Amino acid sequence: MEAQAYQLGLIPLFPLIGSLLAFVIGRRAKDLAGWIATGASALSFAVVVNLVLSGTEEALTFIPFTWFSVFDFSIDFSLRFDHLTAVMCLVVTGIGSLIHLYSIGYMAEDEGRHRFFSYLNLFMFSMLLLVLGGNLLVLFVGWEGVGLCSYLLIGFWFKNLSYAAAGRKAFVVNRIGDAGFLLGIFFLYRQFATIDFVELAQAISANPEQTTLYTVIAFCLFVGATGKSAQIPLFTWLPDAMAGPTPVSALIHAATMVTAGVYMMARLNFLFDLAPYALFVVSLVAVATAFIAATTAITQNDIKKVLAYSTVSQLGFMFMAVGAGAYWVAVFHLVTHAFFKACLFLGAGSVIHGCHHEQDMRHMGGLAKYMPVTCLTYGISTLAIAGIFPLAGYYSKHAILEALAHNHNVYLVSATHFLGAVASFTAFITAFYMTRSFAMTFLGEYRGHAHPHESPWKMTLPLIVLAALALGGGIWLVTALPEFLSTVLPNIHEHESASLVENILASWVGILGVLVGLIFYTKLLSVPGQIFNAVLPLSKLSLNKYYFDEIYAAMVVRPLESISGLLFRVVDQSIVDGAVNGTGAIVELSGEVARTSQTGQVRQYALFMFIATLVVALFCFVL
How far apart are CA 326 and CA 332, in angstroms? Predict the structure, then answer.
């Protein structure tokens, strides 16, 4: 047991060392940077697999040192590995390693690839620290680390000012959410004098009656989750994160950063279960986020923007499960989403690479014959996210809708049917816009000007592995995951098997969305434009992303800029600079006056001495 505990330190340590080596060695041998980073990530994955296969049911704890101790306040740098941590680590290191391998091919010609792989490994280190943290402070260090790395990677091509601005936007918006998260941590420590997860669970379970306090703390923590996991109103940074290289999008959207909020709420399930009103609000926000993001994705033509809004929508589905108290279902969809969304993003990157950096789907089409592997894997993942049986997305989405329908939250019960209907409609929209992206990209005739080609094996191999997981992973996970997580998460119900016909019928929403999408974008090509013009106000609302950025610019950005300009002119320039410059001017003036007495003439100096002596004598006589 002690030897296994020591292995916990190796999981984040390998990517940290890899980050350093990839930068230092990669500066001289750029082609080695990717292999160093990929090897470091793969080593972490191997350690996680070894710990999982060891079969231990007890949580492992590793405390290498006491972080700091002030009077009675002491915090250990503790790492904890239980079944929930194991699932998250498998996703982060497994999917992350595939993305690293893919990146070797994608970034092969970039001069800054040593810096890219260094950042990518640092991202892995931060996310692993987040999920392995045994207390809220260690988790928060990883939480802030992924925020920093997202800034570095989104703005990786910083010479493009719009890309740099996207990185800053991600950083600032996440800081807003993090302020609420920190406040929640402070409340917890003040009330229970601990932020260790095990001790918090014991203390809160022993005091279940403080519902109001738990509700306030839950809201504070949820604010942090809305920023990190891109929920309304703090979701606008995520679509702009497409400015970074495509593998970054896959890593952020599928395996790491955006899942942090879901993981945090699942980890603190013992707190959220005692705040039913907070979970009700979580459900409302989640359904609204899923719907708004899905309806926005319908009109986007940038293939990466479609997938970005899809991620926001799918995160909404995960939070629906959290709001219904079905934490294991949220983790289930987190895992299946990592499979098919990583494949979709990497598939989009393969298309962009093969079409020489073209991202507009209107300039694609017919790529199935040029990029057969990318087409097949993208198509499988499209069916998976659409929720078609027996692919992975079917099982997790079906479990979410079941959780919404059978929740026991006193506040949520009255809205169950409405929220379930909106969620089902959103699932239909998801199948439609994902089929639209597939048809516009791979079917029909090629509409671009480049000479498309299939990507190298370093890029297609991860696509094949991820597509295989999206194809069959759900069949195994739907029975294995509930049993595996039953020791750490509540409200887990065994999967009830159904017949083949029942499962196919349960996929009717996704099947309908796929069929409508195929008909509209392969046969009735003029119909989407006619519908767009028929409901022009709604179409413009979707095309302009519900004007969230414009609203924030009018209500937040421009007023702050005006206030900042006023403070700069009045306080900084007039008062601060005026005082400093005025002091200098006075000294300079007095110096100019004083220097007039320094003439170098002996007669003038003798006169001054005589006058001074006379003044002193008169002063003494008067006294």
Answer: 10
- Rounded to whole angstroms, the Cα distance separating 68 from 537 reads 57
Q: Are 345 and 250 in contact (CB under 8 A)?
A: yes
Provide the 3-class DSSP secondary structure of residue 245.
Answer: coil
User: What is the C-alpha separation between 559 and 554, in angstroms, rounded?
Assistant: 7
CB 176 within 8 A of CB 227: yes
Which structure tokens are listed for 438? 């597939």
Q: Write the DSSP assignment of 416-471 as a string of letters.
A: HHHHHHHHHHHHHHHHHHHHHHHHHHHSS----SS---PPPHHHHHHHHHHHHHHH
- Whether the Cβ atoms of residue 475 and residue 498 lie closer than 8 Å to each other: no
**For residues 243 and 155, is the Cβ–Cβ distance under 8 A?**
yes
Cα pseudo-dihedral 346, 347, 348, 350, rounded to 10:
90
Identity of residue 602: V
Closest CA to 97 of 50, 147, 150, 34: 34
The pLDDT tens digits for 222-245 are 999 999 998 998 888 888 888 888
415-446 pLDDT tens trace: 888 999 999 999 999 999 999 999 999 999 99
Q: SS3 for 406?
A: coil
Q: What is the CA radius of gyration of the chain?
A: 30
| Residue pLDDT, tens place only, 355-382 | 888 899 999 989 999 999 999 999 999 9
